[in-house]
Amino acid sequence: GIDIDTSATGPQISDRMYGIFLEDINHAADGGLYAELVQNRSFEYSTADNENYTPMTAWEEVAIGNAPGNAEVVNDDGRLHERNRNYLHLALPADGGEYGVVNSGYSTGITVAEGKKYDFSVWAKAPGNAAAPLTVRLRDAQGEPLAEQLRIETDKGGWTRYTGTLTATSSSTTGRLSVTGSGGGSLSLDMVSLFPRDTFKGRDNGLRADIAEKIAALDPGFARFPGGCLVNTGSHEAYEGPDWPRERSYQWKDTVGPVEERATNHNFWGYNQSYGLGYYEYFQFAEDLGAMPLPVVPALVTGCGEDEATDDPELLQRHIQDTLDLIEFANGPADSEWGGVRAEMGHPEPFGLTHVQVGNEENLPDAFFDRFLRFRDAIEEEYPGITVVGNSGPSSGGTVFERAWDLNREHGVAMVDEHYYNSPEWFLANNDRYDSYDREGPDVYLGEFASQGNRFSNALAEAAYMTGLERNADVVKMASYAPLLAAEWDTQWTPDLIWFDNSTSWGSANYEVQRLFSANTGDRVVPSTATGTPGVGGPITGAVGLSTWNTSAEYDDVRVTSADGETLLADDFSSGADQWSHTTDAGNWAVEDGAYVQTETSGENTMVTAGDSDWNDYDLEVTATKREG
Ligand code: AHR
């Protein structure tokens, strides 16, 4: 039974309790939320991004009318902008033929819907030709036209942006966009782009409407961006001309201004990030969602599998100044230097930034704090109203976590970001995690959490856990599931909240739970007590892959069997959890043939789950014999 005490009041729940964490992982931005349909539009892909990439990735040469010509990516002084290094040089056939390139988009191809409009643009330079004509075609993989072709006359002279509109005459998920030139001589191209007209809120350089609308349906209270590991890994050097470091940490100044002037960068998750969806677009999206923007800047101490602390005072000072400039970009008047950049981009009004996060999941808490405090001092001195958010490292416990929390408390950090990805059993067993957190200490921002799977049982475990967050809403002020987005055609991390391919997107069971909580956030906790005995023991069969039982006291001879009859675990618990037949030295984790078995022990309860290496649970049968007496 549940007893509700209507005469008492619990903590108030903030309107921004539930929000989103946007990181370009799983092609969340490029190839996903960012609506650009042309892949590698500026010929910048490089082996530094991905060993399979070349500047011609997603492009092929095409000759129409068997015309002789040539297409070559060049990197020379003739470039469109010094940050946009490469461009395409076409040698064109005379005598009526056409030569050029064709782009195959992401995954299956460019996806268009019959009757919809698509905005084409290209930067071109025709030094040798007067009015060299360009032809733009949209066809499917079989060569069938998907729109009436465009013909664009280019002017003789320097780089110029040309535009046109294609209206799809039929629907396809295998579109190919070709741009060809004719008339002899040469023609240079860069920033070949195709956007659906129907972006979210109809914005130029905008977002894919179906994905953005699913995010909007969460009614998020805040939007943390742009990462994650994306932020604090890689070189912290800035873009510096031809020898610019190819794997830079995410530095906001690289991502604002006209898109053709943004340098692309290696993405930590193994592809190229165009930065077409950059800081301005993130701020604007947050505003469109009615969400508090929460940018994350690198603290010059890496995490995410790297343990390095940059020891360069000048570089650190430059990043601190960049963070102050970021606040000016967001909040400064239109006649300030960085507020002026924002105004020039189309938003003279401030974005109303109130929080900045410094760092993400650093493994070296002392080195991190040394830098964090310098950021915080500088920010507080110039912008005393801004809350600077810290973090507690990459896990839900352990020595790094403990040390980080000690430092956070010692230095009175206002809000601490925690991250954990654990089994559903862990979430069920740790519902009381925040009951004992210090009410006088820092607020908690649960910036990344997920139980390992997209099954109903995962969603249920997360829902149960979130009741514990709400019960502790006086300490836990914000929470965001992670990762938010995943392309089903190139996924670096599962599970994820919202999935998409080129034509559609769908929310997971976990998404429905987040939406339930986030779109219906309560005002105040009403204290309640539950009584009754949760079901325990086996046999349990089915897809849930989860069992809890009181091992030492009640059960003997516990066996976990996979659906095809293989014994995954067997134990009589005579000498503790090390008797699990598949357990390795790695604590509770046992990985065999790409599978995992995890046991979690909390008090007298041991919980078991097993699955494959993608965190898909196996169907399990759990049997146990109840002890006599
Ligand atoms: O959400 C995926 C990754 O998980 C984030 O980039 C990182 O912060 C965490 O390790």
UniProtKB/TrEMBL annotation:
Assigned protein family: Belongs to the glycosyl hydrolase 51 family.
Protein name: non-reducing end alpha-L-arabinofuranosidase
One GO process term, biological-process aspect: L-arabinose metabolic process
Catalytic activity field: Hydrolysis of terminal non-reducing alpha-L-arabinofuranoside residues in alpha-L-arabinosides
E.C. numbers: 3.2.1.55
Sorted UniProt keywords: Hydrolase, Signal
Coiled coil start-end: none
Species, as recorded: Streptomonospora alba
GO molecular function terms attached to this record: alpha-L-arabinofuranosidase activity
Part of the intact protein present: 36 to 664 of 842
